[in-house]
Design brief:
Layout lengths: L5 E2 L5 E2 L3 H20 L3 E4 L7 E5 L5 H9 L7 E5 H4 L3 H11 L1 E4 L5 H6 L2 H5 L3 E4 L17 H9 L3 E7 L1 H4 L11 E5 L9 H17 L6 H10 L4 H14 L16 H24 L11 H14 L7 H4 L3 H10 L4 H29 L7 H22 L2
Parallel strand pairs: 3-9, 4-7, 4-8, 5-6, 5-7
Antiparallel strand pairs: 1-2, 8-9
Helix pairs in contact: 1-2, 11-12, 12-15, 12-16, 13-15
């Protein structure tokens, strides 16, 4: 299937195959997902209609992923890659072509000819992405620009679009290891096809400075919650909250994890330990005839749990994450049914472990995906808290 031809801003008939744009959309989705997990990606500005040569600063191998995640798939971006590195072995060549839409550019002899082979692609409406420094820079400083990208734009009659990338040098430093960092991509206004290397470099420098100097907008509420979660009180807080939830308190501690996603494994394990310990105490108290207050529970819930325990014993607790009946009901009814502590510990640790770790990591993943929207954390708490309350009310009503 071939899409209808369209006219670009430069009067050139543009036809990009559907397959090319579909592949670009898949690559954009892939790298957007990866960068969202590693700290988020934020874009300012858009490419103009039609083909263009994108020139960007280069400080990390993650620059390519940032551009593929940020640039529009309708331009089907192609990335110029060093032939002596990315195309010197079959596996690197396959990775570069399939995951980055890369094409080889020789860095010593013949590089200009390699670039000019993309002129027809540009006239067809494609974006060709080049790093005019020729190699990765150091300490965030931009080197001098080679003229190859500018000659290509002039030959194809398409604009040069400066792009500044910030954060990739922290995400994946040169000769360093991957770590969490927010990546920012700033797309500037198009420059005419005939432009000097100094003008293009100055435009990229200005955009790069903007990406690194603009502070990340944050929510005071998120900062306060994150400070508590990541402090020495975070783990005891998770343990005590989950402990109280297993006895009486009707609110999940995982609601706080979006504020500090990297604390999720530690907090989830603390919550798991507190939940299992609280369940054991609920078991022992009920077996001794002590009745702990259990708000937002119903007689029908208790009757259902007694029925499940009679049929399956302690393993009936595995149904808890799916039927909406609070864990504290299972602990209390298991105690009244005479379930042994060892048997209850094994069953509840397995069931609560799967539930607590899955939910905790889910909230942490949500926090990573929403990192660029940190300033909305207060609204997130209100909406999620309201949604939790509404869902809990529906569950209680359904079991009334």
């Amino acid at each position: 299937m071939t899409p209808p031809a369209r006219t670009t801003d430069h009067g050139v008939r543009s036809v990009l195959p559907v397959r090319s744009r579909f592949g670009a959309a898949l690559r954009r989705g892939l790298w957007w997902s990866v960068l969202s997990v590693t700290g988020g990606v934020e874009r300012r500005g858009r490419l103009p209609r039609g083909g263009c040569v994108v020139v960007a600063n280069h400080s990390s191998h993650a620059d390519t992923a940032a551009l593929l995640a940020a640039l529009d798939a309708r331009h089907s971006p192609a990335i110029g890659a060093a032939a002596d590195y990315w195309f010197d072995s079959p596996w690197r060549r396959r990775i570069c072509r399939r995951l980055a839409a890369g094409f080889p550019v020789r860095r010593s002899g013949g590089g200009m000819d390699d670039l000019l082979t993309m002129a027809d692609e540009l006239r067809a409406g494609r974006a060709v992405v080049l790093f005019p420094e020729g190699t990765r820079g150091k300490d965030g400083k931009l080197g001098s620009f080679h003229r190859g990208a500018l000659v290509l734009a002039e030959r194809a009659g398409v604009p040069v679009v400066p792009v500044g990338i910030g954060g990739t040098d922290r995400l994946l430093p040169k000769h360093g290891r991957l770590r969490s960092a927010l990546v920012r991509v700033a797309v500037g206004d198009p420059l005419p096809p005939v432009v000097t290397a100094e003008q293009a470099r100055d435009a990229v420098v200005a955009l790069h400075t903007r990406t690194t100097s603009e502070p990340l907008r944050d929510s005071p509420a998120r900062r306060r919650v994150a400070a508590v979660v990541t402090s020495r009180w975070g783990l005891p807080l998770a343990f005590c909250w989950a402990f109280a939830e297993a006895l009486s308190w009707p609110l999940m501690p995982e609601l706080l994890l979006a504020a500090a996603p990297r604390a999720a494994p530690k907090m989830s394990l603390g919550a798991l330990a507190g939940s299992v310990a609280g369940g054991l105490l609920a078991l022992q108290l009920a077996a001794s005839g002590v009745q702990v207050p259990a708000p937002l529970t119903t007689d029908r819930m208790r009757a259902e749990v007694r029925h499940e325990l009679a049929l399956e014993g302690a393993s009936a607790v595995r149904h808890q994450p799916w039927n909406g009946i609070p864990f504290k009901v299972y602990g209390a009814e298991a105690g009244r049914a005479g379930t042994g502590p060892a048997q209850w510990f094994a069953a509840s640790a397995t069931a609560r472990g799967a539930r607590t770790l899955t939910v905790g990591l889910g909230f942490a993943g949500f926090g990573l995906l929403m990192r660029r929207h940190r300033r909305q954390y207060g609204r997130y708490l209100v909406l999620l808290g309201g949604g939790f309350a509404a869902g809990l009310a529906l569950i209680v009503h359904g079991w009334a």
